[in-house]
Amino acid sequence: MEVQKALQRLEKINGGHADRELPVKNKGSLSLMSAKCCICGIDDGEPIGKGEDYEYQTSDEKFIAMRCTSCGLVYLNPRPSVTDFGKIYPPTYHAFDFSPKNYGIVHKIRSKIEAGRFLNRCHNLPDDARILDIGCGDGFHLDLFRRYGKKSWRLEGVDIDKRAIDAASSAGFNVHLGSIEEIDLPQNAYDVVFMIQTIEHVENPVNVLCAIRNLLKEGGRLVIVTDNTGSIDFDLFKSGYWGGYHFPRHWNLFNRNSISLLGEKTGFEIEIVKTILSPVNWVYSIHNFLVARHKSHHLINKFTLKSTLSLTVFTALDFILQKFGRGGLLEATLRKHGEENKVDKSV
Fold first, then answer.
1. C-alpha distances in angstroms, 246 versus 8, 20, 21, 93, 184?
2. Model pTM?
């Protein structure tokens, strides 16, 4: 019944006007299930956006984005089941092969930016530091740590998709297949854990952060990077085309308040929450708008991860917005500090 109610809310957004149907490449039904706010534990949200899989067109379903009226979390309801991962993450999914061969100069520029950004979080780590990347994909960030970090660092990755694990393993990384809540990793062993644009994909962020906290050493840090629903691009495109929705693969989306509440709920000390620049959601918001309007492939292809010009333009724009705390991504650094911190897993 809750799923049906959520689906009925689709018609209430944008005055009840629906976009034309997209041509679906791999049309197939999904096992949709109802969801609620992972922080508050209630389904008391308001519908704020609707859309389709504009990027990979893996399904002909329409999806609705809800915003919790209490904490501001944006979540997909209804959403696919975890059993649908093989459908909604197709073989062409960019995280499975974000390589220089496929992405050229974009890969080179992103590598330089992110190497500096994330290695800055590791400058005070010991020589034998143990680093874990959750949602490692093909090992893109692990490769940056290997190339630019200390050779003595112990690097590991986790991903639930075998295709990603196979790619990372082929690159020579020590990676683990499965969810962080279920795989057997040593507790109190890691100096820093990264979740780089991963938390928005997981089913239960509370359980994930509790599991991570158990893996961290005392004083260890969790660095989360995720899409920012407090950004200008979200304000402009939230009714359906916002790139950060990434329908139907992003299930939980955060702003400063909700990511801080999540950290506190799971027993972390909040060190800093800030915004960082990213042009991607700007580019894909326009991409999604063009796809929904059935514009030419030539025009649509100017707004993708391979579009150097559009990425450059919106990098410059988001650089300015980031200076005012309205950048496209959130970066939250959470610290494990004291077992006396209460961990609330009641949701």
1. 21, 18, 17, 12, 30
2. 0.89
